[in-house]
Design goal:
The complex is a heterodimer. Chain A is built from three helices and eight strands. By secondary structure, chain A is α/β, with parallel strands linked by helices. In chain A, the strands form two sheets. A four-stranded mixed beta sheet of chain A has the order 1-4-3-2. In chain A, strands 5-8-7-6 form a four-stranded mixed beta sheet. In chain A, a hairpin with a 5-residue loop joins strand 7 (116-122) and strand 8 (128-134). Chain B is mainly α. Chain B is built from nine helices and no strands. Chain B has helices at residues 2-22, 29-35, 40-51, 55-73, 78-84, 90-101, 105-117, 120-126, 132-139. In chain B, helix 2 (29-35) crosses helix 3 and helix 4 runs parallel beside helix 7 (105-117). The longest helix of chain B has 21 residues, at 2-22. Classes of the chains: A alpha/beta, B mainly alpha. The A-B interface holds A 13, 70, 73-74, 76-79, 105-109, 122, 125-126 and B 2, 5-7, 9-10, 12-14, 16-17, 20-21, 50-51.
Chain lengths: 135, 141
């Protein structure tokens, strides 16, 4: 029986720029930033949730050949790589205003739905992120 | 080379997001091209190459999808919904809706509402695709 979800991954095109966004704007903390030689293992977590990490992975060799990495980068920038995550806040409107003031690019304003109020945004590379305030 | 493609994709995505977000507002190609920082002709060509359809069609499909939702879930009139989702002419709305959905807004609403009005077991029995067509096609051989 699987017990717990500890890691998920999102492709980013530049890990420093990813830190500026995920840590500097969304408020994540750096969990692990390790130069393994073959890759920079970079994960972040939300304050108070250190056992749930988001891996900010850069596509490229040797994991991908150059052509494949290029396709991945194209798909990320087209917004076709799915969702980096769905996150929960207590005050969706306050969060929306705060992030907008920080220059975050929203795809949808806070909208009321059956399950609560949520909004959509993109990271600098094109990945989709949702933030919601459940009912 | 690849950086340029990525930058272009990102700009096209920004314009597409604007359509998803602001479909109810009077968006047009010049506005969207400005969001993407390219000329109008270049925008239409590049958007199509990136997402497989013209920006105009993308916006129409987004608006029709919203209209389908409002037809199903609200009591607003077809003319009101037409304006709600960003169309300015009822004629264009009805024509575009029918073209994309395969039936008129009124028929679509009637069918969707009809499904909600009857107990699920009746809906299941009565909306099951008929086999008469197949039988006729079979017997014609």
């Amino acid at each position: 029986m699987l017990k717990k979800m500890t890691h998920s991954q999102v492709y980013v095109l530049d890990q420093d720029e990813a830190l500026d966004f995920y840590v500097g704007k969304l408020g994540f903390e750096v969990n692990t930033d390790a130069d393994l030689g073959f890759m920079r293992w970079l994960t972040v977590n939300l304050p108070g949730q250190p056992d749930r990490e988001l891996l900010l992975e850069k596509p490229g060799p040797p994991a991908h050949d150059d052509a494949t990495a290029e396709r991945v980068r194209e798909l990320v920038t087209k917004g076709a790589m799915g969702m980096a995550g769905i996150f929960v806040v207590d005050d969706i409107h306050g969060t929306y205003e705060d992030l907008r003031a920080k220059g975050v690019e929203f795809t949808e304003e806070p909208t009321e739905r059956d399950y609560g109020t949520d909004c959509g945004l993109r990271d600098p590379f094109g990945n989709h992120i949702r933030i919601g305030q459940p009912k | 080379m690849s950086r340029a493609v990525e930058e272009t994709n990102r700009r096209m995505l920004r314009a597409r997001d604007a359509m998803d977000r602001d479909y109810a507002r009077p968006l047009d190609i010049p506005m969207l091209a400005r969001i993407a920082y390219v000329s109008e002709a270049h925008f239409i060509r590049t958007f199509r190459a990136t997402f497989g359809e013209t920006p105009h069609r993308y916006l129409q499909r987004r608006r029709v999808e919203r209209a389908m939702f409002l037809l199903r879930e609200t009591d607003r009139s077809v003319s009101e919904i037409c304006l709600d989702v960003g169309f300015t002419s009822l004629g264009t709305f009805s024509r575009t809706f029918s073209e994309i959905v395969g039936e008129s807004p009124t028929t679509y609403r009637w069918r969707a509402a009809d499904l909600r009005a009857v107990p699920a077991c009746f809906a299941k029995a009565w909306t099951r695709p008929s086999s008469f067509g197949e039988a006729r096609a079979g017997s014609g051989k």
